[in-house]
């Protein structure tokens, strides 16, 4: 059992100071993240970015916050007003609550009181984080439902399915950490990485978590609940002024939370990286705060990099990847970790090299399987297929796809082919190509078509 005797003995003023420090840290991080995201995206896309408000534009985020606060808060006529007003609050409060168990550093002295740089800790601290962050999705779902509009509703439903599918893979990636640390306490997990970080022992778990945390926070390329190309703005389409700003605040705070959790679980938390860890006292006292913030911003930069690099996934691809790839791989890796620990022994000196080798083998197997599936899919594609793999000829045994069967026209999937008889549809065009006429001049009907 992890020793948590250092927690719960602080005077009230120190607890209040910790709460205020965590709140200020998150708010300042959000302001800095918005500014740096715009500057980094501009740098990657050969633009300038914010450069007017303050030196180098560093006050642009603050100016945007003041501007959005002064905008008129519109409430559409058809909304469910109590839930509509409550949804942003439900989204933003759990985002701050999750940081209560994140360790910023070791025990330090504050005005003569020895206290850990952490608000509190629990024996099930990681489960607390999962529970609190799961509550936040209710704000998105209720915002979409209470808006009384189609597009916000679709965004809310997408967010529900997204959180369910990717939170399963995220929770499974934690199991290996629990097995090696022997605890679910965040401070205990950091202490268990004093010799070797879990990113080296549990590389597949780390990769699965990084993918899942991007999907969990609705960030590109997994920002399907607010896909501007399809849903205008998604679940927050009908929101304005401060209520809209609260959703943006919740998104960036959640980014900070999952980044801090990644640093805590896999990168040693506040412990100094090599070669700085070789310096005596490099991660003691307040210096540990520097390493923790640096690791958090490494993952924040990853979020920005992905947004600037990758296009948005199609929704069925996104869900298939979560259920058919991440979850099975997570389950298989958990079984492999448990088996290796039993066979090699939890106290054996061979456990660390065995886990490193197993991680490399797992990554290699995934790459090989992906390449084999890609080659098979390429061979299965007909020679006369179009740019999306849709053959010009109707596949044998395949039922024709009617895009208006549900009452609303939808595009076909890559393996489907629309088959309608009206002029201008793919089937009609295909029939015209299959049965050419001998007339050299087109008829009047053909010209109109």
What is shown here, in short?
With 449 residues, this protein is mostly helical. The chain has helices at residues 12-44, 60-70, 81-97, 125-146, 150-181, 186-191, 198-201, 203-216, 228-231, 241-266, 287-309, 315-344, 351-380, 426-434, 444-448, and strands at 107-110, 113-116. The N and C termini lie far apart (76 Å).
Entry keywords:
single chain; disordered C terminus; two-stranded antiparallel ribbon; mainly alpha; 449 residues; globular; 15 helices
Describe the structure.
It comes from Dietzia lutea. It is a multi-pass membrane protein. It holds the Pfam family NADHdh. This protein is mostly helical and 449 residues long. The protein has one domain (12-377). It is 59% helix and 2% strand. Strands 1-2 form a two-stranded antiparallel sheet. Helix 3 runs antiparallel to helix 4 (125-146), helix 5 packs antiparallel against helix 8 and helix 8 packs antiparallel against helix 12 (315-344). Mean pLDDT is 83; it is low at 386-395 and 422-447.
């Amino acid at each position: 059992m992890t020793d948590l005797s250092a927690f719960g003995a602080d005077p009230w003023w120190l607890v209040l100071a910790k709460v205020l420090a965590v709140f200020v840290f998150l708010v300042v991080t959000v302001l800095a993240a918005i500014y740096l995201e715009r500057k980094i995206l501009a740098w990657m896309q050969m633009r300038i970015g914010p450069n007017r408000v303050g030196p180098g534009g560093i006050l642009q985020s603050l100016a945007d916050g003041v501007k959005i606060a002064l905008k008129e808060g519109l409430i559409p006529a058809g909304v469910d007003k109590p839930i509509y007003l409550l949804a942003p609050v439900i989204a933003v409060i759990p985002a701050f609550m999750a940081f209560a168990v994140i360790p910023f550093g070791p025990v330090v002295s504050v005005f003569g009181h020895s206290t850990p740089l952490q608000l509190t800790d629990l024996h099930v601290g990681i489960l607390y984080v999962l529970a609190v962050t799961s509550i936040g999705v209710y704000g998105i779902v209720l915002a979409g439902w209470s808006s009384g509009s189609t597009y916000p509703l679709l965004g809310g439903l997408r967010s529900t399915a997204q959180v369910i599918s990717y939170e399963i893979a995220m929770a499974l990636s934690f199991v290996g950490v629990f097995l090696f640390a022997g605890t679910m306490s965040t401070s205990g997990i950091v202490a268990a990485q004093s010799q070797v970080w879990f990113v080296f022992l549990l590389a597949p778990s780390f990769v699965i978590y990084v993918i899942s945390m991007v999907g969990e926070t609705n960030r590109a390329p997994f920002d399907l609940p607010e896909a501007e190309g399809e849903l205008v703005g998604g679940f927050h389409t009908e929101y304005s002024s401060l209520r809209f700003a609260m959703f943006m605040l919740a998104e960036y705070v959640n980014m900070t939370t999952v980044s801090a959790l990644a640093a805590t679980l896999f990168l040693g938390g506040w412990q100094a990286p090599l070669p700085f860890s070789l310096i005596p006292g490099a991660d003691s006292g307040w210096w540990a705060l520097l390493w923790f913030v640096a690791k958090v911003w490494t993952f924040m930069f990853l979020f920005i990099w992905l947004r600037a690099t990758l296009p948005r996934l199609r929704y069925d691809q996104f869900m298939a990847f979560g259920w058919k790839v991440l979850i099975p791989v997570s389950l298989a890796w958990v079984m492999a970790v448990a088996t290796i620990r039993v066979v090699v022994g939890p106290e054996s000196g061979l456990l660390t090299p065995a886990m490193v080798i197993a991680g490399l083998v797992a990554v290699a197997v995934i790459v090989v399987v992906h390449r084999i599936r890609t080659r098979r899919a390429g061979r299965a594609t007909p020679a006369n297929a179009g740019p999306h793999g849709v053959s010009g000829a109707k596949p044998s045994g395949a039922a024709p796809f009617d895009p208006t069967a549900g009452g609303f026209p939808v595009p076909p999937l890559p393996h489907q082919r629309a088959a309608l008889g009206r002029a201008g549809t793919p089937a009609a065009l295909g029939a015209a190509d299959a049965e050419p006429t001998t007339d050299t001049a087109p008829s009047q009907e053909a010209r109109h078509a």
